[in-house]
Amino acid sequence: MKRHRKEGGAVAVELAFVLPLLLLLLIGIMEYGRVFNVQISLTQAAREGARHGAIYYDDASLDVTSAALGAAPTLAGLGVAVTDDASACSPGGDVTVATSISLSSMSGFLNLGIFGGPALFPINLSGEGVMRCGG
Questions:
Q1: Which string of b and e fits 59-70 if b means at least 16 CB within 10 Å?
Q2: Confidence of residue 4 (pLDDT cuts 50, 70, 90)
Q3: N or C: which end of the chain has fewer CB within 10 A?
Q4: What long-range pairs does 19-24 form, CB within 8 A, spacing at least 24?
């Protein structure tokens, strides 16, 4: 197929319209995947911390935070807060572990908001795990 000289710039104009939308879509997919991964990791960390607290609740060297964060290495360096009530646990009671984070945008692009709208990040995520003390 032969191209005329008049149509040569049309491809550049079309690319200028389409490329930003494709990049925005790609960044959005990556950000969503990261948020989804962090949410799953927070929940898993809370469950593992609750399991550890429920088993070792009567141990003087109980460290639920280390057990929780050790179960989710993808959360390292993100500033995850871990709270628990394992020290007040008794047989037949429950231990509750909560994890939380204020996650900023990976790209920094979505911190600005889209088309003048509100910023999408930082986003607050949390996870919770509850287990019966002593099994």
A1: eeebbbbebbbe
A2: low
A3: N
A4: 24/114
Task: Decide: 37 and 74 in contact? Cβ < 8 Å.
Answer: yes
Label residue 9 by pLDDT band (50, 70, 90): confident
Q: Which residues contact 132 (CB under 8 A, 6 or more apart)?
A: 54, 92, 93, 94, 95
Q: Strand 81-84 and strand 123-132: pairing?
A: unpaired
CB atoms within 10 A of CB 75: 21
Please give the backbone phi and psi of residue 42, each rounded to the nearest 5 degrees, phi first.
-65, -45
Exposed/middle/buried for 57, CB within 10 Å: 0-12, 13-18, 19+? buried
Other CB atoms within a 10 A radius of the CB of residue 36 amount to: 11
Phi/psi for 54 (5° steps) reads: -70, -35
Six token digits for residue 33: 């995947």
Rounded Cα gap, residues 3 and 8, in angstroms? 8
Residue 113 has pLDDT above 90, yes or no: no
Residue 3 has pLDDT above 90, yes or no: no
